[in-house]
Design brief:
heterodimer, A: alpha+beta, PH-domain like, B: alpha+beta, flat
Chain lengths: 192, 191
């Protein structure tokens, strides 16, 4: 059997906001009939497959991580700038200019990069048996780009639903008497 | 799984007006920008599990594992007859529980192959990281070489099926061993 070829969709990224420190890093790959989530520790890899025919939903939630990092980099940049200004205010010297340039690169570049990459997000994929977070999809723009790539493949495997059809089917499913009975199963009976 | 879709942040049930839109839309409750895409599989009903029927007629084929139960199909792995209870469907193929188990442990069923050890990563780490504490490379370089050669034919990563890391590890380990050899030869020559 020929080995399945995968196309990389995202780079490796840690599961948390402080992903640089994370030991497990995950990435997303596109196979012939599924998405492959790879969780890598460096010495082992764990794979989770999401077949196009089984994917029920994708959800993207915009987060405030970008704003938080902007504050962090901005404050560090401002503090460093203040220190350099205080040092250099004594007289003309080449040292503070070099120091300012280094600080600008160290704190300014990540700040610019963070702004340029756009808003951050959390993405989840849902199947009949699980809802899995995709940590490597952490920017809205990138996630939407990947969804635009994957959507036709899912539609090819499952068919397409229009907005009205979704609404109608949701009303049928969620508010049907059968579902109402299921709901009541979770609630303890009232004892009068 | 619930048939309801909840906001990933506030966990309130979302109304249908928010689904399958082309851009982020605020959650009606917490106003977090959301984009939720629903596909037809969401509405697919899960088929109920089948019961194994009892053999009624003498001579009727029965399940290999349950002699009293009627066989419904052969296993695609070993060919044994299976009842509805023992029939495990996986991507259109039907297996008995033991074939599924063997297929998973030996990696014969590719869709069940969900874990691989990266021996190339181990060899590379053994070759590179000890350089920081130079003296221990005398032990770790042969170890890196051993791991790289011993596991040369072991399954590679599914997504990166190449041996570049292993080759780099071998080259670095050989360079370290060469360095130590030159060091000891130099000492013995001086002595």
């Amino acid at each position: 059997m020929a080995a399945q070829r995968y196309k990389r969709l995202t780079r490796e990224r840690g599961p948390a906001e402080f992903s640089i420190l994370a030991m497990t890093r995950s990435s997303l790959w596109l196979g012939d009939d599924h998405l492959l989530l790879v969780e890598c520790t460096g010495y082992s890899e764990t794979y989770k497959r999401f077949f196009f025919r089984d994917i029920q939903a994708f959800s993207i939630r915009q987060t405030k991580t970008r704003a938080a990092w902007n504050w962090v980099w901005g404050i560090l940049l401002a503090l460093s700038g203040l220190i350099i200004w205080a040092v250099s205010s004594g007289g003309e010297a080449l040292g503070p200019i070099i120091a300012a340039s280094i600080v600008l690169v160290i704190f300014g570049l990540p700040l610019l990069l963070n702004i340029a990459l756009g808003p951050t997000c959390e993405c989840e994929i849902r199947t009949a048996v699980q809802t899995e977070r995709l940590p490597s999809l952490c920017r809205v723009r990138k996630t939407q780009k990947i969804m635009n790539l994957v959507r036709p493949l899912i539609i090819e495997a499952q068919g397409q639903l229009s907005g009205e059809e979704v609404s109608a089917r949701l009303r049928e499913t969620v508010y049907s008497p059968a579902t109402a009975t299921d709901w009541s199963g979770d609630i303890p009976p009232l004892i009068s | 799984m619930s048939t309801l879709v909840q906001c990933p942040k506030c966990r309130t049930t979302l109304t249908e007006s928010i689904f399958n839109l082309s851009d982020l839309t605020p959650c009606p409750t917490c106003e977090t920008p959301l984009q939720i895409e629903i596909f037809p599989a969401f509405f697919r009903k899960i088929a109920p599990g089948q019961k194994a029927e009892t053999v009624m007629v003498e001579g009727e084929s029965s399940c290999f594992y349950h002699a009293q139960k009627k066989a419904v199909r052969p296993c695609d792995g070993c060919g044994r007859f299976l009842c509805a209870l023992c029939d495990c469907e996986l991507n259109g193929q039907h297996f008995c529980p033991s074939c599924l188990d063997v297929g998973k442990s030996k990696g014969k069923i590719k869709n069940l192959d969900n874990h691989r050890t990266r021996y190339d990563g181990i060899a590379l780490a053994l070759a590179i990281f000890p350089i920081l504490f130079f003296y221990i490379t005398i032990i770790t370089a042969p170890m890196a070489l051993f791991v790289a050669i011993r596991y040369w034919n072991s399954p590679q990563s599914i997504v990166r099926p190449h041996r570049i890391r292993t080759i780099i590890a071998i080259l670095i380990a050989l360079a370290e061993i060469g360095g130590w050899t030159a060091f000891f030869v130099g000492i013995s020559m001086r002595g």
